[in-house]
Automatic annotation (TrEMBL):
Pfam families reported in the protein's UniProt record: 3-dmu-9_3-mt
Top-level division of the source organism's lineage: Bacteria
InterPro entries documented for this protein: 3_dmu_93_MTrfase, Glyas_Bleomycin-R_OHBP_Dase, PhnB-like
Annotated signal peptide: none
Name under which the protein is recorded: VOC family protein
Every PhnB-like domain range: 4-119
């Protein structure tokens, strides 16, 4: 059954590659139905992959091979809550190591330009600490990071 709300992500002919990478990288993710174009269209030919249904961490998505007109931006990102440093490292390294790029404060981009926030739950707990000084120390530590280092965040939180 098709979800009532699906995130549609625009790709330049690489929707199936992206969906396959996400399915291999993230739990509760899979590639679903691949639809091929029934006729020629502005950025493709009859028989090319037009759309790909997939899920990322249980979220229904549709990859649309719409062509080079539109690019992903940081205005949209997937925020992935991680439970420990090993999971944080695995996901970050998978995205960046597959042609992606590092950014700041737990953000990175995959090779298709889609932004990801790899966010340890420990970071969220630290910046929500009821002690404003502890929260600020953790926040300031995060502001100096690319990939989040939980031990450093927790040390900053403790002071």
């Amino acid at each position: 059954m098709t979800s009532k709300n699906t995130i549609c992500l625009w790709y330049d002919g690489t929707a199936l590659d992206a969906a396959t990478f996400y399915a291999k990288t993230f739990p509760d993710s899979a590639v679903g139905t691949v639809y091929r174009a029934p006729g020629d269209y502005p950025s493709g030919k009859q028989g090319d992959v037009l759309t790909v249904e997939f899920t990322v961490l249980g979220i229904p998505c549709l990859g649309l091979n719409g062509g080079p007109e539109f690019k992903h931006s940081e205005a949209f990102s997937f925020q992935v809550a991680t439970d420990d440093q090993a999971e944080t490292d695995r996901l970050w390294n998978a995205i960046v190591g597959n042609g992606g790029q590092e950014s700041a404060c737990g953000w990175c981009k995959d090779k298709w330009g889609l932004s990801w926030q790899i966010t340890p739950r420990a970071l969220m707990a630290a910046i929500a600490d009821p002690d404003p000084a502890a929260a600020k120390r953790a926040f300031d530590a995060m502001m100096e990071m690319g990939k989040i280092d939980i031990a450093t965040i927790e040390a900053a939180r403790r002071g």
